[in-house]
Amino acid sequence: MARDYPRSYRVADQIQRELAELIRTEVKDPRVPSTMTIAAVDVNKDLSVAKVFVSTFDLQSDDQTREDAVEGLNQASGYLRKLLGSAMRLRVIPQLRFYYDNVQEDATRLSSIIDDAVKSNTTSDDSKQEQQ
């Protein structure tokens, strides 16, 4: 099993679960919205650095608000790392680096482009059937 699911993946999953709760309950920075979620955590093989990808449910927020939220989380990373140390049983807690994950916005944008393309489709299924 260890080869199928390396330790770094298991640690990343646990960090994701713990951080989601800690950010919701412990971070008091007004720049970090309550709708902030942990999209993914990527831990390197030696478990020294964890890249934490965050996103928000508020799709109407502007880029500056998102950058401020990520900056607030990066400034609170030492505090969050300390809290992770007491919540997790690891010898060394990875250094936390937060990044904004814009996959959700990209998916929404692509979906609207596809919807617009389908709406503007000039060929109908009926005319195709008549030609056959």
Average pLDDT figure: 85
The total count of strands amounts to 3
Question: Ends: how far apart?
Answer: 55 Å
**Proportion of helical residues:** 40-55%
Oligomer: single chain
Second CATH tier, the architecture: 2-Layer Sandwich
Poorly predicted runs are none
Percent in strands: 15-25%
Put the structure in a nutshell.
Helix content is 51%, strand content 17%.
Task: Identify the notable features of this structure and list them briefly.
132 residues; alpha+beta; GMP Synthetase, Chain A, domain 3; three-stranded mixed sheet; 3 strands; 51% helix
Q: How is this fold's topology laid out?
A:
Elements: H1 7-25, E1 36-43, E2 49-56, H2 63-75, H3 77-87, E3 95-100, H4 103-119, H5 125-131
Parallel strand pairs: 2-3
Antiparallel strand pairs: 1-2
Fold and architecture overview:
The protein has one domain: K homology (KH) domain (GMP Synthetase, Chain A, domain 3, 2-Layer Sandwich). The chain has a three-stranded mixed sheet. The mean pLDDT is about 85. It is built from five helices and three strands. The longest helix has 19 residues, at about 5-25. With about 130 residues, the chain is of the alpha+beta class. The protein has helices at about 5-25, 65-75, 75-85, 105-120, 125-130, and strands spanning about 35-45, 50-55, 95-100. Strand 1 and strand 2 form a beta hairpin.
